[in-house]
Amino acid sequence: MGLVSVFGNDVDAYYDRLLAGESGIGPIDRFDASKFPTRFAGQIRRFSSEGYIDGKNDRRLDDCLRYCIVSGKKALEAAGIAHGSKPMEKIDKARAGVLVGTGMGGLTVFSDGVQNLIEKGHRKITPFFIPYAITNMGSALLGMDIGFMGPNYSISTACATSNYCFYAAANHIRRGEADIMIAGGTEAAIIPIGVGGFVACRALSQRNDDPKTASRPWDKDRDGFVMGEGAGVLVMESLEHAMKRDAPIIAEYLGGAVNCDAYHMTDPRSDGLGVSSCIKQSLEDAGVAPEEVNYINAHATSTLAGDLAEVNAIKQVFKDPSGIKINATKSMIGHCLGAAGGLEAIATVKAITTGWVHPSINQFNPEEAVEFDTVPNVKKQHEVNVGISNSFGFGGHNSVVVFAPFKP
């Protein structure tokens, strides 16, 4: 596993801070946000790509691409096949692929290009404008760097992107088209046009007086989500291939599902039909019964409609909530859009491997309709049997992935 997050670029440190219930939300200082109604986010500070991207290219790249490359290479290190190492030389590159998606693409490069066009004319647009703005370039550049020649593309399904990538990558392996895939999501949209766009959608919290408590999923006083950024990537591998190279297997991907609400551009179905169907399909794909699931990493964005719609859907699938822990990673790191599912999949796997589930912070005045244990404010010890991670996106895109402890 590899990541870039508001809590740094180390998986263990990231999860330790989640377990501690820390908030990574603070004032935006990347640009002057004083005239925006929302002036805070889960902004990454002091990011360094040293050792992973050469200096010349690093200066040109959009952060979306930088986060992708760093998280991907760190995931390979954790998998025992670091770039340039002898174990990496033994990998059949034609059967190794990359599937890292993004919801927004290289938004800074795009925004700067438009500004140059307006202010200085077309001759001042960088030749990197198109390559660094399009959504597939993260996967492409990572593949070029490490030499993986198998399936390589990106998926862009808004905030469901990462799970769609996991699902597709796993299916390439299941169908025998690849032995190993790097999969996940990356995003870097905390710039004026990104914040302004979500403000225009009336999607963001405006709790500027207390940013750290602004992301409060399932709380009656929630007033919108908080933007985040980063990347989260898994190395997914067939069991046969992993065991042959004596890989450090940390968990098992059991299955997943994707579908669509076919309802509204930004609002979820209040009856939860699309989400409940997606959860059921993911469990069928995984070969597990609902009764076996005892942990859910919820999408839980802290929006008025979305939080309860997800809960309603979960209730349709899991009739007895008593043994299930359900938590909200976004309460601490914000909503990382296309990267959200990647960072939350890592949290799900860490819950499996550590036996601890992180809290959902800012649980002050919970909704009565939420009958699950949301792990309010303080971590809990919990042995995960089967865990699912939900991600849903604008356009009605639903996705669920299923993980469990690896049992040799």
**Text of the CATH class of the largest domain:** Alpha Beta
CATH fold naming of the largest domain: Peroxisomal Thiolase, Chain A, domain 1
CATH architecture of the largest domain: 3-Layer(aba) Sandwich
N→C terminal distance: 20 Å
Main-sheet strand order equals 7-13-12-8-9
Name the shape in a single word: globular
Structural class: alpha/beta
Q: Explain this structure to me?
A:
There is one protein chain. The chain has 14 helices and 13 strands. It is of the alpha/beta class and 408 residues long. The chain has two domains: 2-245, 3-Layer(aba) Sandwich (Peroxisomal Thiolase, Chain A, domain 1), CATH 3.40.47; 253-405, Thiolase/Chalcone synthase (Peroxisomal Thiolase, Chain A, domain 1, 3-Layer(aba) Sandwich), CATH 3.40.47. The strands form four sheets. It has a five-stranded mixed sheet, sandwiched between helices.
Structure, briefly:
The chain has 408 residues and is α/β, with parallel strands linked by helices.
Topology:
Elements: E1 2-4, H1 11-19, E2 26-27, E3 40-41, H2 55-60, H3 63-78, H4 86-89, E4 96-101, H5 107-120, H6 129-133, H7 137-146, H8 161-174, E5 180-187, H9 192-200, E6 230-237, H10 239-244, E7 252-260, H11 273-286, E8 295-297, H12 304-317, E9 325-327, H13 330-333, H14 340-354, E10 356-357, E11 380-381, E12 387-393, E13 397-404
Parallel strand pairs: 4-5, 8-9, 8-12
Antiparallel strand pairs: 1-6, 2-3, 5-6, 7-13, 10-11, 12-13
